[in-house]
Design brief:
123 residues; 4-stranded mixed sheet
Length: 123
């Protein structure tokens, strides 16, 4: 896969996540050191713009990952509606991403979902 494919994948993951019951919004994910490095490099190269996907997609084996797993890392930060179970909504996000990856023939992935906010309004 190339960076254009990964950008498309990130955009598709973001769109699928927004459709999940309980998700109020999606925010830029940049929690890991690798994400910070990629983000900084993208900005220096001028390839990160306002329309860039908020989801981070990183390829490469993560230290400590099971053999054959973890070559694809997905990071996403979301806000959830407070009247929904964040745990259940995160589970639905995970399933949505897993299904999307399977439909694209992608390998198993490490999926990191961070809930950064609980929205007090109702869905």
């Amino acid at each position: 896969m190339n960076s254009t494919d990964d950008t498309s994948l990130a955009a598709d993951i973001e769109a699928a996540t927004r459709e999940v019951l309980g998700v109020a919004d999606v925010y830029r994910a940049s929690r890991s050191k690798m994400s910070h490095i990629i983000e900084a490099g993208s900005q220096l190269l001028g390839v990160r713009d306002e329309d860039a996907p908020l989801v981070t997609v990183v390829r490469g084996t993560r230290a400590g990952a099971a053999k054959g797993k973890g070559s694809l890392q997905i990071e996403i930060s979301v806000s959830m509606y407070a009247d929904r179970s964040a745990a259940e909504s995160a589970g639905r996000i995970h399933q949505s991403i897993t299904s999307l990856l399977a439909s694209r023939g992608e390998p198993d992935a490490d999926i990191h979902i961070t809930v950064v906010h609980l929205d007090e309004s109702t869905q």
